[in-house]
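Q: What residues go here?
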């Protein structure tokens, strides 16, 4: 049976002997050095043609061959190819080898770390019974036009396609989720519990952990009106943090409800249409001067009294204080209290705190809102989410309650770096298979195919290389076994298997090789 793809993960809080992989995901903080120039040649111009297949022999040779297979030096082949010097084709051009500003390449070591992160996102989502979904990166621009003055609208990568349709690279996943839920209609029973990991694009001012493209892990629950939904979502994020070695001492969640603002604004007869706009303005607190905030709030019909009262409520950090202000019968206080008592039953009370200043910057939230933050205060929000009970109906769907969160890949990597918690995720190919004779290249391919059929990872040496090179490569890929295909063994249907950690070497029949 094929082995499940396992990641060899050496976690700093679980091991003592390993050093953190500090250079990994370096693009999060370090901007690439000045552009290096590369001469691009066509694939054809780089290709050395070969008239015979190196994979000619794929079955054990018959026994009347007289070569000696136990030799440890691979003789008789040379890498030198005498061809005339290549001229760049006419269309060769120099390109900037750096990716566009704010975007990243993922070379293998960074891809391994990304896979490790996504693997944890996936496993946690599945632990909570969520199903994975995905949507196109390119969506209709209309999905993101909400007219509430959100930053995300100005950051949209949007354009007209060749069919004159206005399209945008998705800046978030929630509108796509809403679109798909409406499209599926009643064919999907409620509650829906979906998760997704997708790349999002925002033309953002670059700061630490904020990029022009990032991957977001989302978990959303559609069809649950109660705060049990939010409680479950926060529990899943806590589970994720614990898995990767982050504790309640490192991060916390600030929790509030947009209903707090709604209840304050209703005391001043502020029109319903001003509500989302007021939330977006309040979300800018701390980013722009307070005078500017007040000016903008006045522009959306808030009186001076309403503004002063609102700002006073937004400074509250205790639910008791909030209850004294709003009374205990309103939905805001009731739901928040309920969420905090659910947190106790889940066992994550120490991770959460009430903070009325959290409103979040997206227009569609209607109830509980939360943000994960770094307790040292060095980083921007690690994740954020909340309840958005009216998003589906604003897209023409039924009014179905919904809540969810988005968790980016960039800030969490910064946090892991800060705490020296980046794991080592080494390349690990269990076997390296190498022929000892050019004529046995096909036999080596047979051995590799046999092992891969057993679910073993195999690096097949594809060219004539000295054994010194092969050992070096085996060390680089962390191979456990070196499998040498030599003539005399192969004639008997056998190969030589060397355990690299001990140096122990045995002849093994191909059929018995696991
Ligand atoms: P958001 O707060 O805009 O919410 O983004 C969620 C998370 O994505 C942030 O906390 C951060 O980790 C990451 N993120 C956002 N922008 C960037 C960026 N430019 N660079 C790096 N990371 C970034 C949403 O997007 C909501 N749709 C989340 C949601 C899902 N709400 C309900 N369901």
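A:
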């Amino acid at each position: 049976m094929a082995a499940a793809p396992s990641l060899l993960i050496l976690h700093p809080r679980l091991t003592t002997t390993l050093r953190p992989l500090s250079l990994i995901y370096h693009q999060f903080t370090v901007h690439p050095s000045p552009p290096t120039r590369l001469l691009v040649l066509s694939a054809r111009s780089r290709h050395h043609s070969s008239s015979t297949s190196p994979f000619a022999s794929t079955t054990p040779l018959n026994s009347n061959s007289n070569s000696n297979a136990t030799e440890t030096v691979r003789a008789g082949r040379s890498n030198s190819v005498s061809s005339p010097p290549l001229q760049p084709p006419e269309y060769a051009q120099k390109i900037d080898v750096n990716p566009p500003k704010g975007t990243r390449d993922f070379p293998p070591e960074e891809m391994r770390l990304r896979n490790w992160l996504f693997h944890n996102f996936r496993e946690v989502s599945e632990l909570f019974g969520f199903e994975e979904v995905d949507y196109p990166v390119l969506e209709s621009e209309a999905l993101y036009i909400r007219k509430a003055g959100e930053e995300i609208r100005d950051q949209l990568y949007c354009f007209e396609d060749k069919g004159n349709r206005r399209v945008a690279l998705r800046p978030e996943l929630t509108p796509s989720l809403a679109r798909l839920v409406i499209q599926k209609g009643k064919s999907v029973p409620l509650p829906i519990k979906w998760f997704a990991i997708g790349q999002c694009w925002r033309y953002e001012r670059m700061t630490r952990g904020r990029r022009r493209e990032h991957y977001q892990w989302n978990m959303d629950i559609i069809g649950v009106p109660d705060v049990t939904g939010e409680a479950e979502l926060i529990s899943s994020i806590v589970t994720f943090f614990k898995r990767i070695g982050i504790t309640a001492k490192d991060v916390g969640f600030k929790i509030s409800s947009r209903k707090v603002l709604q209840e304050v604004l209703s005391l001043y007869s502020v029109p319903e249409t001003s509500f989302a706009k007021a939330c977006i303005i309040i979300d800018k607190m701390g980013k722009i001067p307070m005078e500017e905030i007040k000016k903008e709030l006045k522009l959306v019909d808030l009186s001076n009294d309403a503004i002063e009262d609102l700002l006073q409520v937004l400074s509250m950090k205790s639910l008791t204080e909030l209850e004294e202000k709003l009374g205990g019968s309103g939905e805001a206080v009731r739901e928040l209290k309920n969420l905090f008592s659910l947190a106790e039953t889940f066992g994550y009370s120490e991770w959460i705190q009430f903070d009325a200043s959290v409103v979040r910057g997206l227009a569609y939230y209607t109830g509980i809102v939360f943000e994960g933050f770094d307790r040292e205060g060095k980083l921007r929000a690690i994740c954020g989410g909340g309840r958005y009970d009216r998003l589906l109906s604003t897209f023409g769907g039924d009014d179905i309650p919904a809540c969810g969160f988005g968790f980016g890949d960039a800030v969490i990597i910064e946090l892991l770096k800060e705490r020296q918690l980046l794991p080592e995720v080494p390349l690990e190919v269990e076997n390296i298979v190498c022929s000892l004779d050019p004529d046995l290249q096909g036999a080596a391919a047979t051995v590799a195919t046999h092992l891969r059929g057993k679910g073993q990872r195999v690096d097949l040496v594809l060219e004539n290389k000295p054994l010194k090179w092969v050992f070096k490569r085996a060390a680089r890929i962390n191979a456990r076994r070196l499998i040498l295909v030599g003539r005399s063994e192969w004639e008997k249907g056998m190969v030589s298997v060397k355990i690299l950690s001990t140096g122990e070497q045995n002849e093994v029949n191909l059929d018995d090789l696991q």
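A: Context that may help when evaluating the design: Residues 172, 174, 202, 204, 209-211, 214, 216, 218, 220, 362, 381-385, 404-408, 410-411 surround histidyl-adenosine monophosphate (CB under 6 Å). Confidence is low (pLDDT under 50) at residues 1-8, 14-80.
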